[in-house]
Amino acid sequence: MTRIAITSEAELADVIRGRDAPLEIIGAGTKRDYGKPLENLDVLDVSALSGILSYEPEELVITARAATPVAEIEAAIAEKNQRLGFDPADWGPLFGAPASKATIAGALSADTSGSARVRFGGARDHLLGYRAVNGLGEAYKAGGRVVKNVTGFDLPKLICGAMGTLGVLTEVTLRLVPRAHASATLVVKDIQPGEGLALLRRVWSSPLEATGLAYVHEWAAAYIRLEGGPTPLKDKIASLRTLLHGMEVLKVADGEATFRKIGSGAVFIDQSLDIWRICVPPSEAAKTAEAIASPRWLADWAGGLLWVGMNETADLHDIAKRAGGHATLMRASVETRSRIPVFPPEEEIRAALTRSVKAAFDPKDLFNPGRMG
Question: How far is Cα 136 from Cα 38, in angstroms, rounded to an integer?
């Protein structure tokens, strides 16, 4: 296995143009154990492609090289009271990697949308444009620097969640959102799953614009995060208490830490379980959790996302499909990830479309081959 480290987009393009053997793409490597195992491949190290290229706070737009740490971007935009709307979750510690090392390209490629997705949308809603090198060694750009860029195909939406299989990102441009002046996390305790998830859906459909709606089964608790200026936030909390018809609603001392833990799956870090993420219609969350029958699960996005801890014999793809959703095996041993599909199995029509897209971007199958297989 050879490690090929590049320092520029031009150098990267040169490497790819003369290449026939497949490559594993590595930035910080925090999610290297996510997806199908890749064995005995040469490693393409793009970690040198780091740094913020431009930041326009008044336009709510930032452009950064692909391997720029998410933490560096978040620190820079926090000074202007702005945030990444898709709220990237730090999955690194879940795979034994250090915290706060994930790169922005890795966060987008794995679609690490966190708890605030329930309010602001996912990664593909915030990636305005990018630069990349395709499987022919051609550098190209897609999208733009404004929200209403509609020329051509919407390739930024395609690249999010592709796990590096369509090309090597070199630069990304992101839309930002304002950061609220204040936030409050409230909890309703001792509430059963069906009632707790129904409560979250009720808040989600209200005008309160919650930026976090989660239920943790182990704690039998529903968590609600509200944001705004001091006076509007006070009004929102009062409205929430009215909406919940006299239920006891308590403030959480460190709500931001609670939602970071929920969004990153940190509650599972020290547990020797396989971890699944299941996307379902929120109305199906309680029934899906009951069908899975695991004592270790939580729901985010008002029930739209379930994190589930299971023993290594479980395969949750069919249960998720019956609920109108899909499942992803987030963390498991190499043997289990080799045996069970990590990502949702595709029906033949969609699989044929996937193969065509892959062939168009990476005709020699160079990039992370089989990682999503």
Answer: 21
Enter the pTM of the model.
0.95
Instruction: Starting at the earlier edge strand, list the strands of the sheet with 23-26.
Output: 3-5, 42-45, 23-26
What does 141-186 look like in DSSP terms, one character per residue? Answer: EEE-SSTT--SS--HHHHHTTSTTSS-EEEEEEEEEEEPPSEEEEE
Calculate the alpha carbon distances from 237 to 145, 183, 250, 273 in Å: 36, 10, 10, 37
Are 275 and 94 contacting, i.e. CB atoms less than 8 angstroms apart? yes
Contacts of 238 (CB under 8 A, 6+ apart): none
Alpha carbons 314 and 306: distance in angstroms, whole number: 15
- Least confident among 70-79, 161-170, 262-271, 323-332: 262-271
Mean pLDDT of 13-41: 95
Provide the mean pLDDT of the chain.
95
Is residue 87 within 8 Å of residue 126, measured between CB atoms? no
Token pair belonging to 90: 């730090």
| Burial track 276-286 (b if 16+ CB lie within 10 A, e otherwise) | bbbbbebebbb
Distance separating alpha carbons of residues 139 and 14, to the nearest angstrom:
10
